[in-house]
Structures
1.
Amino acid sequence: MGFKFNIKLLSPKLLIKIYVVCVFCFCYLLNSHGAQVAAFKDHRLPPKVSQQPYRTAYHFQPPKNWMNDPNGPMSYKGVYHFFYQYNPYGPLWGNISWGHAISYDLINWVHVDIALSPNKPYDINGCFSGSTTILPNGEPAILYTGVDTNGHQATNLAFPRNVSDPLLNVWVKSPRNPILSPPDGVDPEMYRDPSTGWLGPDGEWRFVIGSQVDNQGSAILYKSKDFSTWVRSSSPLHFSNKTKMWECPDFYPVVVDGKKGLDASAQGKNIKHVLKASFNNSDYYVLGNYDPKTDQYDTDVDFLDSKASFRGWSGLQTIPRSIWLSKSGDQLVQWPVKELEKLRTQKVHFENKELKGGSMIEISGITASQADVEIAFSLSNLEEAEQLSAEVVDPQILCRQKNASTSGKFGPFGLLVLASKDLNEHTAVFFRVFKTADSFRVLMCADQSRSSVRPKVDKSIYGAFLALDPRNEKISLRTLIDHSIVESFGGGGLVCITARVYPEMAVEENAHLYAFNNGSQSLSISSLSGWSMKKAQVVSIRKRRKPIK
Ligand SMILES: *[C@@H]1O[C@H](CO)[C@@H](O)[C@H](O)[C@H]1NC(C)=O
Ligand SMILES: *[C@@H]1O[C@H](CO)[C@@H](O)[C@H](O)[C@H]1NC(C)=O
Ligand SMILES: *[C@@H]1O[C@H](CO)[C@@H](O)[C@H](O)[C@H]1NC(C)=O
Ligand SMILES: *[C@@H]1O[C@H](CO)[C@@H](O)[C@H](O)[C@H]1NC(C)=O
Ligand SMILES: *[C@@H]1O[C@H](CO)[C@@H](O)[C@H](O)[C@H]1NC(C)=O
Ligand SMILES: *[C@@H]1O[C@H](CO)[C@@H](O)[C@H](O)[C@H]1NC(C)=O
């Protein structure tokens, strides 16, 4: 199976904006002790809990300081490498560098030296997002965005100093940098995040870069014979007049039938291509057919009509996910890499338990603040389901209108996570089933509105429709709970919603976990398995940093 770190976080520019409006969530979100203390300055610290109740135990975090976008994940000589946007000097956004960590299993990590620091005129204002590509001689190359002394963005190249070193601990910037600057007509502040390269049948490399051209979000396509001298293709790989600036574009093949991962340059029948881009503070993807001879990319639907946007992303890195095409061929499936299961310890399990309307059961015996839970529901008497009015088709709106405290017939039912004993705090991840003219629709929501009694933390409600037929299939949910992050996978990974939450009471041993049904119809938990999760091992062999001059 292929793997991708799929969370897009925030762009350099966006971040500045968000940081201003959202100091609280981001400090909670992203940082270690220092930032929390800063953010909590005017707040009460929760009594009798560890100093860092929101620090995660098995999700990737740097040892300290600010982190945002993931960059250039790759496997090299049997070692996984992961880079990320990092401020080595403080818990706030700034001094953007490429942090670097390695792993043998994608779960336990070793922090190695900073790979790229802003120390050249062409990147002095930051080494921003980019990618890695393994070249035909087996050597990896980094493409990254540098912001120069004028605040202009350009693309740069870097290589490992010693390719025999599997840790790739030292990276050297190309003397030819910057290798690409914004072409005429492209705003030099809207030209960033080069994707991983792929080879066409003509032996030439391609990559795309995120931009806005003629007021439309675009993935500008470049071609090169040597990965160093690049020529802009006459047309972009894709663009959409319904969107503005695209960031962090990614373009990769998936097999039509199966879960096998593919090399970025794979071609041939039985392959679809995924184009992912970030805009409007969300990640979106489309599926389409790509002809590598002509570089024509025909998408199955328009970006915004795509059933499948990733919404509700935030802060720290999610667990790396395997990605493949769904059986129906029109959606991606995302699932935490199986290596995560090595962290599972104490287990609870039961089957075929009735969950009456208006009832809940506590799932006890595991650590509710650090857990992995899989639950499946089966429903009967579906003809009793509420009718879905034809007008409301936006699942986000529907989840807000019918939040976790709004009783229906089939639903809300699901999990209450990071819940306080009195339920004053809880994050609800739940489903509702509706009847339509000729079928059924399953809605999945993550409701953070009661996740914390603290003011000023994110209390959004996110949602998506789950493409499954409740007459034939169980409705399943897997939720990864790690102190301040709740990652939920509905329908085996057809829908994924990630929430960052900052409870005041429901922390550590005061956190509880429940299965609940707040609809009027009874249903059955066909199976539930829950595990306490061990802490991932994270060590640092990073050398002392010299201050930036
Ligand atoms: C950037 O680094 C310098 C030290 O090299 C430090 O003085 C400054 O505060 C840092 N900026 C941020 C935003 O962390
Ligand atoms: C390159 O890395 C290899 C493997 O770690 C090491 O044996 C060798 O000494 C390194 N070469 C240099 C010049 O550092
Ligand atoms: C946007 O693009 C579509 C085709 O992709 C076209 O049909 C439509 O007219 C365009 N709309 C505007 C406002 O340009
Ligand atoms: C972008 O987000 C804004 C605010 O959240 C929303 O009003 C707008 O409809 C979104 N645009 C698109 C194209 O989705
Ligand atoms: C369940 O519904 C009742 C009545 O509408 C409401 O008071 C309660 O808060 C709901 N439970 C949850 C977990 O939202
Ligand atoms: C939840 O829905 C109910 C009923 O529509 C509404 O009164 C309440 O304000 C909603 N809560 C939130 C946080 O949106």
Note: The pocket of 2-acetamido-2-deoxy-beta-D-glucopyranose (ligand 1) is lined by residues 87, 89-90, 92, 94-95, 547-548 (CB under 6 Å).
2.
Amino acid sequence: MIYKRSSALFAEAEKVIPGGVNSPVRAFKGVGGTPIFVKEAKGAYLYDEDGNRLIDYINSWGPMILGHAYKPVVDAVVEKAKKGTSFGMPTEIETKIAELAVSMVPNIDKIRFVNSGTEACMSAVRLARGFTGKDKIIKFAGCYHGHSDAFLIQAGSGASTFGTPNSPGVTQGTAKDTLLANYNDIDNVKALIQANKGEIACIIIEPVAGNMGCIPPKSGFLESLRVLCDDNNILLVFDEVMTGFRLAKGGAQELYNIKADIVCFGKVIGGGLPVGAFAARDEIMSYLAPLGPVYQAGTLSGNPLAMAAGLAMLEALDGEENVFTRLAEKTEYLHKGISKVLTKNEIKHTINRVGSMISVHFDENEVCDFDTAANGNNDTFKAFFHGLLNEGVYIAPSAFETWFITDALTYEDLDFTINAIDKLAKQI
Ligand SMILES: *Cc1c(COP(=O)(O)O)cnc(C)c1O
């Protein structure tokens, strides 16, 4: 494939935008080469600036669960735009999407809309701190909760010690309140709680981790976290920015039948426009301004275009009983197909999958936390990524990302992808 125009556009972009991108994951740092510039997209396909068609397995990193340019969403946005794009005053559509979200998701009475997943998680933690009157939080190594300071803390060698910032600009003062635990390691969490008795406001977790590949919670892990939180007056915060409205109508809470205290949303809830949200039972949400003392605000929060897109998306997902089963079936088909051709070509791999989230790791051992995710062979991944791209299949340019299956994908698209992998597997 030819990427002449993409390369030229990237060179232009680099002059005026740091690294040529407005979010680092879009750069090809992990795989080499230059990013592809998209011209348009429809259904399961991206069309780039050089006229190449690519089958899309990223789908804007999750939001486009029903495919690109999904008509009801596009129509809703276009209609709304004609009537004014922002008012900074309440509008009826905000209540409509709130009512629908509250009806779809278990254990929430009220929801506040923001503009990104980052804002949702940042605000959820502030609310948890305000509600409990405690400062510290526990997060898990390899889980991503957006780029606000408290979350940019990485495990050193000892994951159970105080965090150190993994970005300059995050102060030690902030880092000392973020404690790091290993995903799927309940004893680690117990030890942290023991060592910080009475100081922990919340545990925040991706109930299915999606930012180190797809890593399911081990059986009983989320249940044990729930018990630990109850016993220690700690709030359990589910970051469902990726899993919300994707794994089921009610997200991971519904799938695993666990009650979180605060739930964060993003991605699918905005139907491709910038939307995030956080939600909880009434008692907790009442702590939020203007009802309560915890401040949180946004000039463009609840923006009519964003709400129109989100509402159309949630209505589509709510109205179709089988959509989540159908997505899971397509993902299972892909899983089996890829596994078969990689095995046939003697390429060591592990494939993780929950619902419509799937990741391929080039290591034969179980991938269940950040360390095991980091064990994958990155040279194999690079060859795999570029090989697929050359066949017209676009996966995330990083071995640490989940693939997002969209309902627009047909079984022919899946077969095409599996055959492409069979072809390129002979060379890697
Ligand atoms: C994408 C993501 C975020 C951040 O959302 P943005 O809209 O990019 O700010 C937070 N948490 C999880 C689990 C995510 O996948």
Note: Residues 155-161 have pLDDT under 50 and may be disordered.
